[in-house]
Amino acid sequence: MQIANFATEHFFAQYEFTTPHLLGSSDCESVTVAELLALAGVTWEEFGRLGLGYTESLGHPELRRQIAASYASVHDAEIIMLGAPVEGIYLMARAALDPGDEVIVLTPAYDALIHLFEHVVGAANVKRWSFTPGAGRWELDFTALRHLISPRTKLIVVNFPHNPTGFLPAPAQMQELVAQVERHGLLLFCDEMYFGLVHDGTPAIPSAVDLTPRAVVLSGLSKTYGLPGLRTGWLVVKDATLRANLINWKFYTTICPPAPSEFLALAAWRVRDQLRARSLARIATNLALAEAFFARWGERFQWRRPLAGSTALVGMNVPSVRAYATHLAETAGVLVLPAANLGAEDRYLRMGFGRAGFGAALAAFDAHLQAEDESPE
Ligand SMILES: Cc1ncc(COP(=O)(O)O)c(C=O)c1O
C-alpha cells in the first residue's frame, strides 16, 4: 500500500551526510558517548555491565518514573517509552482513529504529522489549519480553526514549540485551543519534541498533558537535548483505553526500547538541564548571526524571528525554493530544507539554529549570495 512521499527524510537521506554546511537541521548539536558519561558521572564499566537482553516493553521503570515526575500531573503508568520518537506519531495515527474520522493538522508540519494521519483516514479527511504570516511573526487563526471543526472531527494535531516556524502559543492561546478540544470532545495530539527550547522574552507554557486529560503528548531526547542518535522518545497518554490500544500497536512495531539507548537516556536525564542549556545558548548565538544576515539580505528574504524551538520558516524571493535548495547544496555545499516538504508554499525554506557549524554555514551562504549578485546575468 502506498503512502505519500516522506520528502524531508528523502531530502536528508540524499544530502545530510554529503553536504558540508548544514543550515536546515532541526536537532541541536550532539555529544559523544564519552562526553555524556563524563557529564553524568557514569563510568564505562557501568555501561559495560549492561545486558543486551530484551528490555521492559513500556520502558525502564526508573526512566518512566523520572520522566513522569517532570510533568505536573503525570503518573509513571501514563508514560510509554518508544523505539524512536517518530514511532509515536505512527502509533497515534493507528490507535486513535477509525474510518470516517476527521483530523485537523496545524500546517506546515513535520511530514509524518500530516501524512500518517492522511494515510489512516484518507487525505480528504485531514483538514489543514494553516499558520498565517503576520508582520515579523507567525500567527494562529482561531476563527479558521473553529470553521474546520465538524461533527466528524476526532483529533487536532499540533506541535509546540513548532517545527518549522519556531512558534509557541501564548498561554491564553493554549487555553483557547484546550477549550476548543474540550468543548467538542476531541483529542489533542501535541508533539513536544522541542519542549523547553523557549527563547528569551517568550513566556513558557506547560505541557499540553498538564492542561487537559484529552491531550496525548509526544516527547523525546532528539532535539532539545541534542541526542537524536539515541532514538529515545515517549508518549504521555492519560486515557487508559487509548493507552492500551497504543501499546498493542507498539508490539507490532518495536516491542521495547534498545537497552544501550535506555542506559544512556537515564544518564542524559540526570544532566538534562545542562544539555538543554547548551542547546539554548547555541541557538541564541546562532539567532544573533541570523538576524545580522537577514538585516544584510532583507531584499531577498522575509525573516520572522522564532519564539521557541530550533528552527525558523524563512521566505525567499526565488521562483522555487526546492530548485534553489538543490542548486545551493550542489554548488555551494550549503543545505537548507525546502519547506514545501513540510506542506508550506515553495517560497519558504527552513533554517535550523542548533548546530555548532551554523556560523561557517551561514558565511558560505552569504558568500554564495554575494557571488550571485556579482555574476552578470
Ligand atoms: C516535530 C517533530 N516530531 C517528530 C520528529 C521525529 O523525531 P525523531 O527523528 O527523533 O524520531 C521530528 C524530527 O524532525 C520533528 O521535527
Structure description:
This protein has two domains: 125 residues, Alpha-Beta Complex (Aspartate Aminotransferase, domain 1), CATH 3.90.1150; 219 residues, Type I PLP-dependent aspartate aminotransferase-like (Major domain) (Aspartate Aminotransferase, domain 2), CATH 3.40.640. It is of the alpha/beta class. Strands 2-10-9-8-7-3-4 form a seven-stranded mixed beta sheet, with helices on both faces. It has a four-stranded antiparallel beta sheet with strand order 11-12-15-14. It is globular, with a radius of gyration of 21 Å. It starts with 6 loop residues before the first helix and ends with a helix. Helix 8 links the parallel strand 7 and strand 8. Helix 2 packs across helix 10, helix 4 packs parallel to helix 10 and helix 5 packs parallel to helix 6.
CATH class of the largest domain: Alpha Beta
Q: What is the residue-averaged pLDDT?
A: 97
End-to-end C-alpha gap? 47 Å
Helix content: 40-55%
- Could you give the count of β-strands? 15
Largest sheet: 7 strands, mixed
Question: What is the H/E string?
Answer: HEHHHEHEHEEEHEHEEEHHHEEHEEEH
Name of the CATH superfamily of the largest domain: Type I PLP-dependent aspartate aminotransferase-like (Major domain)
Supply the helix-strand structural class.
alpha/beta
Tally of individual helices: 13
Low-confidence stretches: none
Bound molecules: pyridoxal-5'-phosphate
Estimate the strand proportion.
15-25%
Kindly provide the radius of gyration, computed on alpha-carbon positions and rounded to a whole number of angstroms: 21 Å
The general outline is globular
- Biggest sheet: strands side by side, in what order? 2-10-9-8-7-3-4
State the domain count. Answer: 2
Briefly note the CATH topology name of the largest domain: Aspartate Aminotransferase, domain 2
What CATH architecture label of the largest domain applies? 3-Layer(aba) Sandwich
